[in-house]
């Protein structure tokens, strides 16, 4: 006889990660659609103004198209994805930490921990207090911390590097140095499609691994019984 069990803990976090992955698979197609519609609109306006055959007007129009396609659209679509991705990761570790604290009847909560970054605070709580590794891969954990730095710059300053503190600027420049596909274009952070995929894979694998270690396996289980 097969027994079926379902542990619903953290399932909402897993669903959110799944949904973000589905969105990521479609995001770049949206950029292509934006570029196509922008081009059609731009040259329709030139035609309506009788400037379609004017070389200078066409050159200026193309320059605007290229700038929007290379800098504006990628930043405005990819940036919010990274903000949402960090939100999913943070929600997962907070949910797991709260669940364990409740189960163990612990007085110290994750929110009581202080540290230089969200990842550092989470690591301190999980490792020092819960005796659970936040991430079994320390290199991956460092990359997720990089995501946290970029998320802050994108969420609070729309990716404008100069709006950050001197320390923040140095951190951003160091991250860009480690990730050649992230551009600093016109003073703005412009993440690439490759970086989005890499960041998603890191968060997805790290968060799911933490959930499964704490839950003891997948949510759905089938066991042979008598």
From TrEMBL:
The lineage of its organism: Bacteria, Pseudomonadati, Gemmatimonadota, Gemmatimonadia, Gemmatimonadales. It comes from Gemmatimonas aurantiaca. This is MAE-28990/MAE-18760-like HEPN domain-containing protein.
């Amino acid at each position: 006889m097969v027994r079926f069990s379902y542990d619903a803990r953290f399932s909402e976090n897993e669903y959110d990660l799944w949904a973000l992955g589905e969105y990521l698979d479609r995001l770049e197609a949206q950029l292509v659609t934006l570029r196509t519609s922008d081009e059609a609109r731009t040259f329709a306006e030139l035609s309506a103004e009788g400037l379609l055959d004017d070389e200078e007007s066409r050159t200026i129009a193309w320059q605007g198209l290229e700038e929007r396609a290379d800098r504006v659209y990628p930043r405005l679509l990819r940036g919010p994805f990274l903000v949402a991705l960090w939100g999913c990761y943070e929600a997962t570790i907070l949910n797991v930490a709260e669940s364990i604290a409740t189960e163990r009847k612990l007085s110290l909560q994750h929110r009581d921990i202080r540290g230089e970054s969200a990842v550092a605070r989470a690591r301190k709580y999980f490792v020092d207090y819960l005796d659970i590794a936040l991430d079994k891969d320390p290199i991956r954990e460092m990359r997720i911390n990089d995501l946290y730095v970029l998320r802050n710059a994108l969420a609070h300053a729309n990716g404008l590097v100069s709006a950050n503190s001197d320390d923040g600027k140095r951190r951003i420049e160091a991250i860009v140095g480690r990730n050649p596909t992230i551009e600093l274009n016109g003073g703005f952070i412009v993440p690439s499609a490759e970086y989005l995929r890499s960041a998603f894979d890191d968060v997805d694998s790290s968060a799911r691994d933490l959930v499964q270690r704490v839950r003891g396996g997948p949510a759905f289980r089938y066991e042979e019984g008598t």
